[in-house]
Amino acid sequence: MQPLTLYNTLSRQKERFEPISAPHVGLYVCGPTVYNYVHLGNVRTFLSFDTLFRYLTHIGYKVRYVRNLTDVGHLVGDSDEGEDKIGRMAKLEKLEPMEIVQRYTLDFHNVMATFNALPPSIEPTATGHMIEQIEAVKELIDKGLAYESNGSVYFDIEQYNREGGQYGKLSGRILDDLLNETRELDGQSEKRNPLDFAIWKNASPEHLMRWKSPWGMGFPGWHLECTCMSTKYLGTQFDIHGGGMDLKFPHHECEIAQGHGLNNHDPVRYWMHSNMLTVNGQKMSKSLGNSFLPSELFAGTHPLLDQAYSPMTVRFFMLQSHYRSTLDFSNDALKAAQKGYRRLVNGLRLLKSMTFEAEEGAVVEPKHGEEVARDNQALYDALNDDLNTAVAIGHLFSLLKKINQLDTKQVSMEQFGEAAFAQLQTTFVQFFEEVLGLKEETSRDQTAMVGGMLDLYREYKTQRLYDKVDQVRSYFKSQGLVIRDMKHRIDWAYEE
């Protein structure tokens, strides 16, 4: 089996994954700023790292997965000036900021559960780690890497670089070019350098969220929060830091600078970034009217959607593309994903209902063991190649062909062999459910109803009541199901 390799944004190449303290792995992912409903771009990022978490666990690592909630300090426009996103929403809705935080945290958790994402090991909040952040600011000032100005504290990028730091190495941006791009903004006069970023901000009188500090009433900088929370729970250097591509600069660049400044070494071994979503080839954005919420997808209520799409269809759709590639939403692509997902779920149902039973007196001549072993190996090789879920799904479809051949008796159990059948069952179920996080979308009530209707179908068919047979078929079709009327049995499946 080839070793696990991950694309490291820092080195710009795939690297063999070697944890600092195997089998333990430290994984940190930047969570949402909980001021509004979670959008699909965020969902893609979190599902990508949910899959990584699942796979690392599957192959035997003990993963501490930390994903924070930003509940203060993230300013509108991702800048050092202006309103806090949560404070702004609180003013608009005439609520306490923590009411906003609670509402959208619950929404985020509900959406993640709907997509069958596992909860992280630890989910810290910025407001819950104010002491750690104030102490980090003090330490950076003491080291000469930060300075106070008018009640705010800024990280000194030029001093950091003079001491061996390389600000810009993650994003590949050159300091001189960044300076040329930077416009003179309000409040920048209090900085020594326009690129210096806030690690503590002075709170204006109208600012809702504020804490006492040695520099006056204020609040922490957005970048510092992640540095303090990741360090507290994963150590001063940990294995993997994940997030969306949009966070690479300046957020993650600043995290590297702060972490190195505090501890004299880089904070992270492997930086991983998921790519953006587009809609019909255009960037997803509210201003273009092509941004939709998960709830709109599930209900099919957005004007750009032809129909509703289930959570597992959307998860499957996202997994069909490599996490580092741009993913384009379109009705055609989602419908194709729905068909593919249902084909695999039908195979899952069949496989779970099968047991190895050789016919009495039949000679067992296993011919398919090597093929199953090869597909099993190919699944691991695909995910070991920088978590290539798209290729892995292709190999699941190869295994699906064998499931269908067994079901239709094109291949007998004797030709398959007990060992190959056991491996097929284990591999298909584990990768579909445990690693890719997919599941059959059905309730106990629905299963009972479908089973009852199928019994009626059998009875009507026996009695040759064909008008009622057609009525049952129509009911199944209305539910997105089909009746499989075969020689050796009658069953149902999801309509593909």
Walk me through the structure.
This protein is an alpha/beta fold. It folds into 3 domains: 5-274, 3-Layer(aba) Sandwich (Rossmann fold), CATH 3.40.50.620; 279-435, Four Helix Bundle (Hemerythrin (Met), subunit A) (Up-down Bundle); 444-494, no CATH class. It has helices at residues 40-58, 85-93, 97-114, 130-142, 157-162, 175-181, 222-234, 248-263, 294-299, 311-319, 331-353, 369-384, 389-407, 413-416, 418-435, 444-462, 466-478; strands spanning 5-8, 13-16, 24-29, 62-67, 146-149, 152-155, 197-202, 218-220, 238-244, 268-274, 277-279, 282-283, 327-329, 481-485, 490-494. The chain is elongated. It starts with a strand and ends with a strand.
